[in-house]
């Protein structure tokens, strides 16, 4: 029997996506409806409960497929980007509108109600958020919603960056947030996903998925001299990215932050708590 990861499979005993008919058993099957995220960031949880742990986030402008909306204001969705499934607030969603044309390339950027930096911003969008640009005004781009974003903070949606390590390093000092994907807080796999996605490399959401899907195993035997810039170091439940022969970049609950940590010290510290390096993957 083929294993279907519940994190990536829109199926429950009472409801499943129509395309899964014949693959999974469910009381009923439904066609999904496209929506887009209209909050700066929208939390996704495994259950429709505002106190449930965060499993991931969707950023402004990202699209989802909605399979159920409850009377209590919850939406059961699958994110179109990395296919993660879960519950989010229904009020965070709206019909899709025109396709996104640009993404936020700065760590974060304010959205102003007019073409002036002196106006109080209406929103603060994070790196990777998506917008639809409809015009220009001075040094600003006008979005479909009527907001103004500094033009240098946006990039065409199809632009890719050259170096995921450099992208990850921009997040240094950002808060660690379990399940987070934004510059206001993100976890270890969210950080790696942000860096790789910006460079056009498809990247799953969670560290175990990344370990299984990305690159090739270099057979790491403990000698840090073997490691190269961009290598992904995996422990059970954790991932970091090698910056160079001496440093590791990662979002860690140990410091509750994205940090640049001496590579040897990081490997020794994590191994000391009973979780030695499991795999090193090279892209």
Task: Give the termini separation.
Answer: 30 Å
Tally of alpha and pi helices:
4
Low-confidence stretches: none
Task: Give the overall form.
Answer: globular
Mean pLDDT: 96
How many β strands by DSSP?
A: 25
Q: How much helix is in the residues?
A: 10-25%
Question: What order do the strands of the largest sheet run in, or round the barrel if closed?
Answer: 20-25-21-22-23-24
The oligomeric state is single chain
SSE order in H/E notation?
Answer: EEEEEEEEEEEEEEEEEHEEHHEEEEEHE
Structural class: mainly beta
Sheet with the most strands, sense and barrel status: 6 strands, antiparallel
What is the C-alpha radius of gyration, as a whole number of Å? 20 Å
Strand content: 25-35%
Q: Would you give an account of this structure?
A:
The chain is mainly beta and 283 residues long. 12% of the residues lie in helices and 35% in strands. The protein contains four helices and 25 strands. The chain has helices at 164-169, 188-198, 207-213, 263-272; strands at residues 16-17, 29-30, 33-37, 41-45, 54-59, 63-69, 74-79, 85-89, 93-94, 102-104, 108-111, 123-126, 130-131, 133-137, 140-143, 148-150, 154-156, 181-182, 185-186, 216-217, 232-235, 238-242, 247-252, 257-262, 279-282. It has a six-stranded antiparallel beta sheet with strand order 20-25-21-22-23-24. It has a five-stranded antiparallel beta sheet with strand order 8-7-6-3-9, with no helix packed on it. Strand 4 and strand 5 (54-59) form a beta hairpin. The protein starts with 15 loop residues before the first strand and ends with a strand.
